Amino acid sequence: MIMQLTTELAVIREREEPGPLLTKPEHVAEYLGDIKNLAQEVFVVIGLDAKNHVLQRHLVSLGTVSSALVHARECFRPLILDGASTVILGHNHPSGQPTPSAEDIKITRQLISAGEVIGIKVLDHVIVGSQGHLSLNEAGLVQF
């Protein structure tokens, strides 16, 4: 058993070239440009390395025109596997208006708490729409 564990630990994935650098909400909004005009709400997590380079973006939920079901388990599972240091949450509003709902703020707070337990810091939650974007961090709507 110990030998098997040692062999498994010896298999280390090679890192690809660093992905885009996301340091400002504008960068995130640009990175999420492909979802801003969708007719359904989608929720994604963007796993980042220690220097805020994108490791991977994962679709967590594909919802309806007005909501998407989001749970911490589905958000953090791919981030743990990617070895993410931090995460940026993102979703679109099919209405075009990026104003956060009470549910957006609630789920953000829940994911921040879950991230603290797991050790993956939530840096921001950016909402995009055809009429612009909004950073919950920049707007001061949630304590990150």
UniProtKB/TrEMBL annotation:
<dbReference type="InterPro" id="IPR037518">
    <property type="entry name" value="MPN"/>
</dbReference>
<keyword id="KW-0862">Zinc</keyword>
<dbReference type="InterPro" id="IPR001405">
    <property type="entry name" value="UPF0758"/>
</dbReference>
<dbReference type="Pfam" id="PF04002">
    <property type="entry name" value="RadC"/>
</dbReference>
<keyword id="KW-0482">Metalloprotease</keyword>
<dbReference type="InterPro" id="IPR025657">
    <property type="entry name" value="RadC_JAB"/>
</dbReference>
<dbReference type="InterPro" id="IPR020891">
    <property type="entry name" value="UPF0758_CS"/>
</dbReference>
<feature type="domain" description="MPN">
    <location>
        <begin position="21"/>
        <end position="142"/>
    </location>
</feature>
<protein>
    <recommendedName>
        <fullName>MPN domain-containing protein</fullName>
    </recommendedName>
</protein>
<dbReference type="GO" id="GO:0006508">
    <property type="term" value="P:proteolysis"/>
</dbReference>
<dbReference type="GO" id="GO:0046872">
    <property type="term" value="F:metal ion binding"/>
</dbReference>
<keyword id="KW-0645">Protease</keyword>
<keyword id="KW-0479">Metal-binding</keyword>
<keyword id="KW-0378">Hydrolase</keyword>
<dbReference type="GO" id="GO:0008237">
    <property type="term" value="F:metallopeptidase activity"/>
</dbReference>
